[in-house]
Amino acid sequence: xxxxxxxxxxxxxxxxxxxxxxxxxxxxxxxxxxxxxxxxxxxxxxxxxxxxxxxxxxxxxxxxxxxxxxxxxxxxxxxxxxxxxxxxxxxxxxxxxxxxxxxxxxxxxxxxxxxxxxxxxxxxxxxxxxxxxxxxxxxxxxxxxxxxxxxxxxxxxxxxxxxxxx
Length: 166
Fold this sequence. Notes:
Layout: H1 3-13, H2 19-36, H3 41-46, H4 51-54, H5 70-81, H6 85-102, H7 105-113, H8 117-120, H9 160-163
Helix pairs in contact: 1-2, 1-6, 2-5, 2-6, 5-6
């Protein structure tokens, strides 16, 4: 698949307003994927892509095998792309769907073999033109637990004897 076709498909599937937005989504998604993959897998994947796309699968972070979850993957894409998490998850799914069409099934299987189950589902695209179905897509950043969820009495967080000293 040629560069222009790849970018146009991402733009269309992710409902983006411009080629520049699609390029940003492709870069953020593939840089994050490359960081998750270990060894020479990013290089193998890049070998089947146009050079303008393959560049996102290059070092310094490519091949480090960083252990992160699907939620962390989407969060990193969101940060790199500079868009809200809900948009980044849609964009990443569109990029991965087009990636699955652009490279051989054997290469996709090699990529999937390195991913945990939650990330592997991104590569399960049933029909050309579809987006991968992903369970439990995060739509906002993770929130720290509430104090009330920690077993602390919210009305009296400290014993009264420690609140008043004379």
